[in-house]
């Protein structure tokens, strides 16, 4: 059993912290939200009144925060000042590559070992302990983080040096956003050409056009495996979070001088979908906007 400080107990962090507690660790939990703390306490974590209290004597630190500015703030103002130097630091939030590298550099300068370890998999995977972690950091950092991450996930992969976990995460999600948009427009075209959606799924999911978006997460209701499309696009991976990841990918592409026209197009489409009220819908719900027969025609109208 180890003493683990867990900061950020929201939709994702709540389930992850609970899984560490279930594995037998003493989880010292802190969040700015009382409601999040209540839920964590109910799932076996120890409620702390401040980040500093959570960090006291910690052997490992996990953070699961909304964005880069929160991560930089929490590390600069709390973790790097209050955690013991021997603690392994793991930031599992999805943030920009630049901030991930900067914070890891500051942690290293202060004598800590830190990894960025963003996740693939949504709230259900966080609760079930079946996340996939993409880890950036040294070999030593990876090996020290691995046992904790394995208790929260089904796969833990070393992506490279500091920041590489975030790079892998946003590249993966840029590809996902682009393939989902392409899958949606393909189904719309197929239908307009008179093809039955199920028949087209049967063909394309076994032909060269297949992708995860087609085969495992089909955006058409009643076609393929059970997906959010079968629940009016409720649950799953919110379009607003896909937009966040696409923005991070475009920012990174610009900084790296990479030409990413498909990623740029996906960002624009998701921006429009979120602007029309689709932000809380699953990201496959963008098919409603792409198929003009399924969407309220007036610009600015809500997605049906
Ligand atoms: P969330 O908003 O539900 O949770 C974030 C939590 O951090 C909140 O409870 C908030 O109160 C807390 N917080 C913010 N600033 C804090 C501070 N200074 N000190 C302590 N607590 C603070 O977000 P989430 O859905 O849990 O996502 C967390 C991260 O995981 C994000 O970076 C997101 O992009 C990423 N992610 C989310 C999903 C998903 O499906 N929700 C999937 C993969 C990755």
Helix/strand layout:
Layout: E1 3-7, H1 11-22, E2 26-30, H2 34-42, E3 46-47, H3 51-55, E4 60-63, H4 68-82, E5 88-91, H5 97-109, E6 113-116, E7 119-120, H6 123-128, E8 131-136, H7 139-150, E9 153-160, H8 164-192, H9 197-204, H10 212-215, H11 239-256, H12 261-278, H13 287-290
Parallel strand pairs: 1-2, 1-4, 2-3, 4-5, 5-6, 8-9
Antiparallel strand pairs: 7-8
Bound molecules: nicotinamide-adenine-dinucleotide.
Provide a descriptive summary of the structure in words:
With about 300 residues, the protein is α/β, with parallel strands linked by helices. The chain has 2 domains: about 5-160, Rossmann fold; about 165-290, Orthogonal Bundle (N-(1-d-carboxylethyl)-l-norvaline Dehydrogenase, domain 2). The chain is about 50% helix and about 15% strand. The chain is built from 13 helices and 9 strands. The chain has helices at about 10-20, 35-40, 50-55, 70-80, 95-110, 125-130, 140-150, 165-190, 195-205, 210-215, 240-255, 260-280, 285-290; strands spanning about 5, 25-30, 45, 60-65, 90, 115, 120, 130-135, 155-160. The strands form 2 sheets. It has a 6-stranded parallel sheet, with helices on both faces. The protein has a 3-stranded mixed sheet with strand order 7-8-9. Helix 4 (about 70-80) runs parallel beside helix 5. The longest helix is centred in the middle third of the chain and has 29 residues, at about 165-190. The protein is elongated, with a radius of gyration of 20 Å. Nicotinamide-adenine-dinucleotide (NAD) binds near residues 7, 74 and 94.
